[in-house]
UniProtKB/TrEMBL annotation:
Protein name, entry field: histidine kinase
Coiled coil regions in record: 347-417
EC number(s) per entry: 2.7.13.3
Location(s) in or outside the cell: Cell membrane
Catalytic activity: ATP + protein L-histidine = ADP + protein N-phospho-L-histidine
SUPFAM superfamilies: ATPase domain of HSP90 chaperone/DNA topoisomerase II/histidine kinase, Sensory domain-like
HAMP domain ranges (all copies): 301-355
Length: 583
């Protein structure tokens, strides 16, 4: 059996050392990932479960307090119920207000009579509509909203109240979510970890940065939110957050309110122990490389003697001396000369090729650097413009709110009811325009707004303004996924504001019931139809004179011209106004 040659032995030794080092690194990496995953999972789940239990305890305590307040209110005199509820609110840090409602949603007692008066209709509140059909001991919680009392995020908790096993109504309590924000801030988390709470729709309810809560940002598009809502506990090791960063996250569902607690940490920070482990493995690999180099040096010394003799002969031949090859045959001398010529020619070709490749690489690198610089500048410019547009819309909305407040203050000083009414109508028109700017920076699309969302929120504002008279009306809205730009949204909103206000005020006299509808849909390949209708008393016979004398209808006509549209009015069976304009 032939013994292996020295190069073969050297190759086997080097290959064995490299393979062993690679297997060690792979084993250490897999073990580290498993241990680190378990550690991160336990710590994050502990934090999320603790905050979820605190949230459940807070909700259940508020539910117990509201239940006791309901029993106390039923046992008190009608004249002292409101003061009793007001005292309970003052003693509770988690309550902004308490309101006792009858089965029809009318306020019987209020802790804040200035905000919600006795007899006010709250039958459209989501929490009331659920709670009025619940059994004793059950409760419902509304989605989060900005409180008109504290101007901070809040939610409504409603429970049915019973007396002698008979349903007497519903007691609604406005919960302050500042308690959850404080509990979130007190958790023992790392500085680079983020803990937040969202509701079942993905709206942020508690966050270390208050702007996330005030702007009601929505995280329903994140994979960790979707996993968390579908499982009581979910750990998603690797995912992208809203900024495109790789994160490690954990969730826990609050069973009392169906709210979700999310804990997340940057992957680069969480995997830092693994990086240290890989550094140790790299050191081991370096030591293996040193050993390999030693073996290579030993092997090269074993095969260097023949090469040295060949070099000496080549040098002698190049210098014209031949003492070392005097004993060589002529064929051997010719072979050395041929080998020398071939090496020299090959070296020249390689040098020329390498020079050309180096120049090509330099050219490609320069081009790549220029392109990278241009792309980075474009991204930075785009991000700056997007931020600036959001800030502009935010400030425009805030400035319009200041104008609304000034008009409200001016109206309070007027004794002339017609002047005060005109100012109130002007306030609502400015609110309509402010809502467009709010949706533009809140939804994230700075060019277009969702017409369905805009019309729904605008209609809800008008319902709150006109109070009980508007709540007797069945209001339907259909927008069919139509998007409007800023130049279209403001005129459309003002038109709907005028027409819907007219229907609330004049279509149903003497407290009559009825229906009002708003439809926005594509009626042609490039046109859009806005229709506002009601089944009220219709229009008077002298409609042309009323249209010329009414400021609201003149405003509708002017806004229709601004949209380059056409206005059509029908008043035989109820009233139907249709505006057709190009998209």
């Amino acid at each position: 059996m032939r013994a292996p040659t020295l190069p073969v032995m050297l190759l086997r030794i080097v290959g064995g050392i490299a393979l062993g080092a690679l297997l060690i690194i792979m084993a250490m990496t897999l073990i580290s990932i498993g241990l680190l995953k378990e550690s991160i999972s336990q710590r994050q789940q502990t934090n999320t479960d603790a905050l979820a239990r605190y949230g459940d305890t807070f909700v259940l305590q508020m539910e117990h307090l509201i239940k006791l307040a309901g029993k106390a209110a039923l046992s008190a005199n009608e004249t002292t119920r409101s003061s009793l509820l007001s005292g309970i609110v003052q003693l509770s840090a988690g309550l902004n207000g308490l309101y006792l409602l009858d089965q029809d949603g009318k306020v019987q007692a209020s802790s804040n009579p200035n905000n919600v008066a006795i007899g006010f209709d709250l039958s459209r509140e989501p929490a009331f509509n659920v709670a009025k059909n619940l059994n004793e001991g059950q409760f419902s919680i509304s989605p989060p909203f900005m409180s008109t009392i504290t101007n901070k995020i809040a939610a409504t908790l409603a429970i049915p109240v019973f007396e002698h096993n008979q349903r007497k109504g519903v007691l609604m309590g406005e919960l302050s979510l500042e308690e959850l924000q404080a509990a979130l801030s007190s958790l023992p988390i790392n500085p680079d970890e983020l803990v937040l709470i969202v509701d079942q729709r993905g709206t942020v309810m508690a966050h270390p940065e208050p702007e996330w809560v005030q702007e009601r940002r929505n995280l329903s598009h994140l994979a960790i939110f979707q996993d968390g809502m579908s499982n009581t506990q979910a750990l998603r090791m690797f995912y992208n957050d809203q900024h495109g960063h790789w994160m490690i996250g954990s969730t826990s569902l609050m069973s009392a309110a169906d709210w979700l607690v999310i804990t997340e940490q940057p992957l680069s920070v969480a995997m830092r122990p693994l990086f240290w482990m890989l550094a140790v493995a790299s050191v081991a690999l370096s030591l293996s490389a040193l050993l390999t180099a030693f073996v290579q040096r030993w092997g090269l010394r074993q095969i260097s003697k023949p090469i040295e003799r060949l070099v000496i002969r080549a040098d002698d031949l190049a210098s014209g001396h031949s003492p070392s090859i005097t004993n060589q045959s002529t064929s051997q001398v010719a072979e050395l000369a041929s080998l020398e010529t071939s090496f020299e020619h090959m070296a020249q070709q390689l040098q020329t090729t390498i020079a050309a490749l180096e120049q090509r690489i330099r050219d490609v690198q320069a081009t790549e650097a220029n392109l990278t610089s241009v792309v980075n500048q474009l991204h930075a410019s785009l991000a700056e413009k997007e931020t600036l547009l959001k800030e502009i819309h935010h400030r425009v909305k805030n400035n319009l709110q200041v104008v609304i407040s000034l008009l409200r203050l001016q109206a309070r000083t007027l004794e002339d009811e017609r002047a005060a009414l005109a100012l109130a109508e002007s306030q609502q028109r400015i609110v309509t325009m402010a809502l467009v700017h709010e949706l533009l920076y809140r939804e994230g699309d700075l060019a277009n707004i969702n017409a369905a969302t805009y019309l729904q929120e605008l209609a809800e504002q008008l319902v709150r303004i006109y109070g009980p008279a508007a709540r007797r009306i069945n209001l339907t809205i259909s927008a069919n996924q139509v998007s409007l730009n800023l130049d279209q949204a403001v005129p459309c909103g003002l038109i709907v504001n005028e027409l819907l206000s007219n229907s609330f005020k004049y279509a149903f006299p003497n407290g009559a019931n009825g229906s009002i509808g708003i439809t926005l849909e594509a009626c042609a390949p490039s046109n859009c139809c806005l229709t506002v209708w009601d089944n009220g008393i219709g229009l008077p016979e002298n409609i042309e004179q009323n249209l010329s004398n009414s400021l609201g209808m003149r405003l509708v006509q002017n806004l229709t011209r601004q949209l380059h549209g056409q206005l059509q009015i029908e008043g035989e069976q109820g009233t139907r106004v249709m505006v057709t304009f190009p998209l």
